Amino acid sequence: MIQRVLAIGLIAGLVAGLAIAALQHVTTTPLILAAEVYETAQHGHEADEGWKPAEGIQRTAATSVADVAAASGYALVLIGLMLAAGEAIEPRRAVAWAACGFASTGLATALGLAPQLPGAAETDVVMRQIWWVGAAAATGAGLFLLFRSEKLAAMSLGAALILAPHIVGAPKPAVPQSTVPAELAARFAASSLAVHAAMWILTGFVVGVLWREFSARGRGTAS
Amino acid sequence: MIHSHLSSVAGLHVSAKRIEAIKAAFVALFVGAGLVYFAGFSGAEAAHNAAHDTRHSLSFPCH
Predict the structure, then answer these.
(1) Least packed by Cβ within 10 Å: which of A40, A93, A104, B9?
(2) Is residue A189 in some structural domain?
(3) CB B51 within 8 A of CB B39
(4) In chain A, which residues have their Cβ closer than 8 Å to the Cβ of B34?
(5) What is the number of domains present in chain A?
(6) pLDDT at A147
């Protein structure tokens, strides 16, 4: 079972990660590169940043590897949560869970911390990471209670969990400032959410299809 | 009596499967969270630089 879970998670991550890498290459990455031109013009080139991938194919490859890692991670989290909840894993349900995954790590977090281009004013990264994890976890748990429970108290708790991160509020810079034109920033926020949604839905779909196929084959050899 | 014996065996079978699923779920969550951490959160300079464009594109906090 553990082998099957890891294999499906990694294959789904590979498929979704590479698809997303291609999508990013034509949507978000050109905006990031354009933003870096403005950032460098304003602040000059920052020295002593440690190793970084060379521009061009190496940078694209590094991004693709990171995409596969992120998608595999989300695929495994999706499988883990569905198994723990005792949910049957098949394409439609997995896609529904993936949609909740997107609502948690994409929509809820973006409401507090909009996807930013390099060059935007930001607060301490660790504080934002803590808020991000808290918002994603609270939204996920809240959605689970809302969809899974029929008791009013549990559903109210679910709604409260979804609202809580936004009542607490994400860390925000005192003055919104950016070296990037607002037009580019707006296009980036919209396209990164679309890419994020595509990643989750594709991940969920591939997990569902592979799980069904592996289970059918397992039953075939057992009988 | 035979019936009750059968149902308890079935119950044991179901719970063994459930335990296996919980174990697999735990491993999946652990490995999955590790991968997401590496891609989206690791403070190591090289990991940040390699995953930079992914972090921005998938709305992980960056910089």
Answers:
(1) B9
(2) yes
(3) yes
(4) 73
(5) 2
(6) 94
Are A101 and A133 in a shared domain? no
A83 to chain B nearest CA, in Å? 6
Check pLDDT > 60 for residue A130.
Answer: yes
| Residue A138 clears pLDDT 80, i.e. is over it | yes
Report the residue of chain A nearest B50, measured CA to CA.
A62
Q: Report the residue of chain B nearest A171, measured CA to CA.
A: B61
Same structural domain, A147 and A202: no
Residues A199 and A157 occupy one common structural domain: no
**Separation in Å, CA of B28 to nearest CA in chain A:** 5
- Please tell me the distance from the alpha carbon of residue A161 to that of residue A150, in angstroms, as a whole number: 16
The Cα B21–Cα A187 span in angstroms is 42
* Parent domain of A28: 2-121+182-222
pTM value is 0.91
pLDDT single digits (tens) A200-215: 999 999 999 999 999 8
The CA distance from A4 to the nearest CA of chain B, in Å, is: 9
Does B61 sit within 8 Å of A128, measured CB to CB?
A: yes
| Angular region, A50: left φ>0, alpha ψ -120 to 50, beta rest | left
Does A117 sit within 8 Å of B31, measured CB to CB? no
Q: What tens digit of pLDDT does each residue of A30-85 get?
A: 999 999 998 888 776 655 567 889 898 999 999 999 999 999 999 999 999 999 99
Over the stretch B10-59, which tens digit does the pLDDT of each residue have?
A: 566 678 889 999 999 999 999 999 999 999 999 888 899 999 999 999 99
A177 within a domain of the structure (yes/no): no
CB-defined contacts A:B, below 8 A: 165
Question: Do A33 and A74 share a domain, yes or no?
Answer: yes
DSSP state, B59?
T
Task: Please indicate, yes or no, whether residues A24 and A65 belong to a single structural domain of this protein.
Answer: yes
Rounded to a whole number of angstroms, the distance from the CA of B61 to the nearest CA of chain A is: 6
Is there a contact between A28 and B33 if contact means CB atoms under 8 Å apart? no
